[in-house]
TrEMBL record:
GO cellular component, one term: primosome complex
Name of this chain's protein: Replication restart protein PriA
GO biological-process terms attached to the record: DNA recombination; DNA replication initiation; DNA replication, synthesis of primer; double-strand break repair
Enzyme class: isomerase
Lineage: Bacteria, Pseudomonadati, Pseudomonadota, Betaproteobacteria, Rhodocyclales
Cofactor(s) of this protein: Zn(2+)
Origin: domain of life: Bacteria
Quaternary organization: Component of the replication restart primosome.
Domain Helicase ATP-binding stretches: 202-369
Textual note on the cofactor: Binds 2 zinc ions per subunit.
Catalysed conversion reaction: ATP + H2O = ADP + phosphate + H(+); Couples ATP hydrolysis with the unwinding of duplex DNA by translocating in the 3'-5' direction
Amino acid sequence: MPIVRIALPVPIPQLFDYTAEDASHEDIGRCVRVPFGGGEKSGLIVDLPVDADVDATRLKAVRHIQREVSPLPADWLELAAFTARYYHAALGEVVALALPPGLRRADAVRDLAADPLLAPSAAGAAVLAAPRRASRALRLLQHLAAQAPQRRSALRAHADGEAVGELLRKGWAEVVREGAPLVSGTLPILTAEQHAAVDAIAATATGYAAWLLHGVTGSGKTEVYLRLAANALAAGRQVLMLVPEIALTPQLEARVAARFAGAEIVALHSGLAEGARSRGFVRALEGHADIVLGTRLAVFAPLPRLGLILIDEEHDASYKQQEGVRYSARDLAVWRARQRAVTVVLGSATPSLESWQHARSGRYRYQVLSQRALASALPEVRCIDTRRLKLDEGLSAALQSAIAARLEAGEQSLVFLNRRGYAPVLSCPACGWVSTCPHCSANLVVHLADRRLRCHHCGCDGPIPRTCPSCGNHDIQPFGRGTQRIEARLAELFPRARVLRVDRDSARTRAQWEALLATIAAGEADILVGTQMMAKGHDFPRLTLVGVVGADASLHAADFRAPERLFQQLMQVGGRAGRAHLAGEVLIQTEYPEHPLYRCLATHDFDAFAAMALDERRSAGFPPHTFQAMLRADAPLLQDAVAFLREAAAVAAGLAPAQVHIYDPVPMRLTRLSRRERAQLLVEAAERGALQSFLGAWLGALRGLRTPRTLRWNVDVDPLEV
Ligand SMILES: Nc1ncnc2c1ncn2[C@@H]1O[C@H](COP(=O)(O)OP(=O)(O)OP(=O)(O)O)[C@@H](O)[C@H]1O
Ligand SMILES: [Zn+2]
């Protein structure tokens, strides 16, 4: 009887053999359900071995093979295997992460029929012409009318997308004939730099090439992506477009859908309902989807006709998964481009130092967009020296009057503060009590909007006490400032202005987020108070002033990547100012106006900053000049976590070649998280290969160690946080 070898989601690097009566080589790459332990697990057939690893008579039989959809192709299995190897994870875990849950469970995949193009029908047009009460269906119809035709799946993705069935039932929308033009709408005339970039990148389109597209904020990188995508689509190829957080980029989704009305666009991200995710994945797998637009996990989309990979905001930390299999979608995308011999474009106004270094060394090709597409200039950036100033709830007089001037002119301002909540801690001046999280080594943040004290790490919360829980003092005070406090003060200072706070508390759902964006875009907000959510990618033509408060705190953070992140964040958020025809200005409140980081910001000199930061990294022996991996352990008791890491370090000492450096175990900065104490051990090498082969041997040995039941450990290759 045929034997099938299966990758199952278990945390050990082992494959499992089963028998399957009717299995053939055609089944490699198919999902299966198998008995496992007392229950059932689902996994993927990766091989059809001639002989089993164990006595064949003891093998159990698979329960079900999913044969409704095409098997995952060999190149996809290679991608999964590479991911498992490089990040030292079990293949089954990679498969579990990469496949949509429904497909992996070998469930039936429904609704695989083509994704029809829809447009308003005559009845729909009549509905739009007559005044009627607002409803979901009406809003969706209006949206469709503004951008018809649209794929059913694209409509589904709209905030009112649930009404798509209703629209069809009511006859307000109809299916339009295929063969609609691939590219629709009027195309903007490219700037000279955009033109040069498109030409240069298109010239390498016949094989593997990695491009860093370094375009200043507002330079029109998106337009370059769209033109390159159009070329690939015209050549009959599929395009993979990665974005940092799809919930943050509904605008981009809409833009892509509007540009390529005749193309099938599939969104892939973890926010989708299971059915939609399976469906999109299978549409890509079977070669129907033309464009796959998604967050990091979309890098695992199977794409038989792949022709181009685009990575927007390539520097963004969200491309790195921070739990489970800690992969970097950006790095995997580059590997994938090489594997499939296609072009990959990494775009950013503030490239990661890793990518910038690759561009310098010639590993990546390099294309610059130095001018903004619409605006005549980048915003003017100035520091407000706050050392001798009296601030009003953190706001300087200069910033206040700049905001007042924008109000007067009918323009928008953004106050950027990367700390949500009202105040980072509640404290008692009498006895020194502070609000600390019972589960984490962190303070509880005051959220005045819903009157709670909340931990931003474990999420636990409770009411705000009226008196000090320790001494009974009535006069306990919120200490420090978050977005809610700034919002409240701005509302007092500018009573006639419409102040809008944009952070993860005010935009908890995608619908809330889209509503906020729509409010801003419609000019119905005058002063925005926002966290880094506001920094990414947005394009609001009337936003002309960005005020930065509280950035100094990150200047002296312990993580060696902190300056890079701060610079990127400030350049990005500053880049929201003056993107269209109104001049922009960025005011940074700081006690260190002479700091080189701020000076580089003021001159928009990313290259100077990057060169400086890379020099520092070289002398300190940090990435990208070295390669790192982090072994982390957590347990209810810190001593258990540290003891394990000490043992791991001792094992490493016996295995590591001279060029691999093993650091001492240390508690993590946020030592306690959700009642578990955490510690880490850094290993570093001058070469990736040396690190990789050491890791293989070391982790193998660690898996054999006896550890307390309550201890967990994991490895993070190329960690972003150290
Ligand atoms: N060739 C062009 N002609 C006219 N307008 C353009 C052109 N290219 C881009 N734009 C417009 O310029 C603005 C900035 O473009 P886009 O948002 O793509 O910039 P970006 O490079 O992605 O910037 P960021 O990195 O800051 O997000 C947008 O409003 C876009 O529509
Ligand atoms: Zn907590």
